[in-house]
Amino acid sequence: MLLLAMLGTMEIVVIIAVVLLIFGPSKLPQLGSGVGKMLRGFKKEMKAIDEDEAADKKPSSKAVAAGDDDEIDVTPKKTAEKAKPKEA
Length: 88
Hints:
single chain, 4 helices, 2 strands, 61% helix, 7% strand, elongated
């Protein structure tokens, strides 16, 4: 961002002129479209990574035994004995 702040009007005009000479005016819409698709894909993947990291940080009610691919439910469950009050 610092580099863009240092660019003056004349430098930006020269950059645009060089891009026009290299790609030509007929290729610029395709170039812009390609850059836009690339940026959208990049943002989508960054958002997916952030969501995956947030999901990994959530505590899970499932535990996996070492070396075992089957998940074991460790959520406390109420049993019939605990749910009913004891009569004395």
